[in-house]
Specification:
3-stranded antiparallel sheet; mainly beta; 79 residues; 0% helix
Length: 79
């Protein structure tokens, strides 16, 4: 089993709430960043999120491959 970094598009799950002239951004009720509303919009996100071409991506770690503890089982189910 190996760990792999992946980038997941979470744009449709991000919501924004206005507070003190800024748009606070949340993913599943967890704050992930904010947008400063001015002539030159700035987006500041937590370290495992990024914006690219008007989409918001989350960097996650996933497993890849088979789980070795189940590969040596016999036909009776004993491992």
């Amino acid at each position: 089993m190996t760990l792999k970094q992946q980038r997941v598009d979470v744009t449709d799950r991000v919501i924004g709430k206005m507070k003190n002239g800024e748009m606070e951004l949340f993913l599943d009720n967890t704050p992930i960043g904010k947008m400063k509303l001015s002539d030159h919009m700035q987006v500041e996100l937590e370290h495992h999120f990024e914006v690219e071409q008007q989409k918001i991506y989350q960097h996650v770690t996933t497993t890849e491959g088979t789980d070795a503890k189940y590969t040596d089982c016999d036909d009776g189910g004993w491992c």
